[in-house]
Amino acid sequence: xxxxxxxxxxxxxxxxxxxxxxxxxxxxxxxxxxxxxxxxxxxxxxxxxxxxxxxxxxxxxxxxxxxxxxxxxxxxxxxxxxxxxxxxxxxxxxxxxxxxxxxxxxxxxxxxxxxxxxxxxxxxxxxxxxxxxxxxxxxxxxxxxxxxxxxxxxxxxxxxxxxxxxxxxxxxxxxxxxxxxxxxxxxxxxxxxxxxxxxxxxxxxxxxxxxxxxxxxxxxxxxxxxxxxxxxxxxxxxxxxxxxxxxxxxxxxxxxxxxxxxxxxxxxxxxxxxxxxxxxxxxxxxxxxxxxxxxxxxxxxxxxxxxxxxxxxxxxxxxxxxxxx
Length: 325
Ligand code: ACO
Description:
binds acetyl coenzyme *A, alpha/beta, 10 helices
């Protein structure tokens, strides 16, 4: 028996030109390079230029992903874009990306799951493909978190950056149960009771403002280690695998200590961990494809490798996807 499998045909990433170092931030807010590096692993972040929007970053990353896949925009029949920093309240940023790429068919919509957004978007696109409702999907994570930060709040403004990353996913026939390329499993979770640990204090319906990001860092940290370990364990169990079978663990890049603790807890060696937080900071929904692009570009991730992506974000939301590259 054959069934559809979504295969990652192309990958693209884009970071805005401007780099802001920790030392530069320390000139305007009461912090230090030492504090930021020790607590988070972050050395610098990229920040979008004035007039450069989430859709602009998304289009740049999508262009690269399409070129990498050798797929023309006219073949794309689904765009799922994960963002918490859309250009506008509506229309969906995905539709701006669609227009920017010259695509006039298929469906384009946004997903809002904060830092888990890319895992959610991969799961949604994978299910559309498996159900036969789409053939070639562009899955994008794109953010301009610099626009929702309170630049006076040292406990949050040092943590985030801007960027975008994209997959081209395409339907392939796969024999049931075999280990051919593609998305092998996705698992998604949310628990809305934890809204107050990580939220934006504004919105169109509540305050009619955009608002700023607010976070209880310690609470988020505590939940992250537990939830991410569960999501990784779930992905391994669903595929009958253990940590040794996985070639690369590509976590959402929130904090180097969270990534290292989760990996350790689950028996992954640190060499299998793909880390870009030092250069990108936390780019929310964009962090996983940005990290993957780094590891593909430098030759670490190779065809046939087993790649496990996992994330947790505001909501809380969390999840994972196992991918045969
Ligand atoms: N520079 C210097 N000092 C600081 C800074 C800073 N940038 N920020 C906070 N501090 C101070 C605090 O004021 C506090 O001082 P005090 O002891 O005098 O009160 C002290 O440092 C310790 O603060 P904590 O918040 O307890 O520091 P902690 O070790 O917990 O580290 C951090 C904070 C890095 C935020 C950590 O809790 C963390 O990474 N949490 C997880 C965050 C996360 O993953 N967020 C992303 C989720 S993704 C999403 O969906 C957006």
